[in-house]
Amino acid sequence: MNDDEAPPSASDELRARFAALRQEHQDLDASITALEAMPIPDQLLIMRLKRKKLAVRDQIVKLGDLVIPDIIA
Predict the structure, then answer these.
(1) Is the pLDDT of residue 73 over 60?
(2) Could you tell me the CA-to-CA distances from 52 to 8, 27, 31, 33, 59 in Å, in that order?
(3) What's the CA gap between 28 and 9, in Å, rounded?
(4) Following DSSP, what letter does each residue of 15-48 receive, concatenated?
(5) Range of the domain at 44
């Protein structure tokens, strides 16, 4: 590590985690769409991916509350 480099702050780490979760959510959505377009879709796999997508969305909402501050106008 360089002396000039500052260690990542907690805020930077939260933002990185937030971005990673959003990407995972998009990837799951694309996978679900592709599976549903198959001639004989695997319904069990689709259900599992949808549950995982919902869990990821819940994590995004929780992290979003920490990353994006509430501004009362």
Answers:
(1) no
(2) 29, 11, 12, 14, 11
(3) 29
(4) HHHHHHHHHHHHHHHHHHHHHHTSSS--HHHHHH
(5) 11-66
Residue 70, helix vs strand vs coil = coil
- Does residue 73 lie within any of the structural domains? no
pTM, to two decimals: 0.77
Q: Which two tokens stand for residue 51?
A: 């549950």
**25 CB neighbour count, 10 Å cutoff:** 18
Overall size of the chain counted in residues? 73
| Count of structural domains, the chain | 1
- Residue 47 inside a domain? The answer is yes
Query: Binning pLDDT at 50, 70 and 90, where does residue 41 land?
Result: very high
- Per the listing, tokens 């990821």 go with 56
- Short-list 25, 71, 20, CA closest to 50: 25
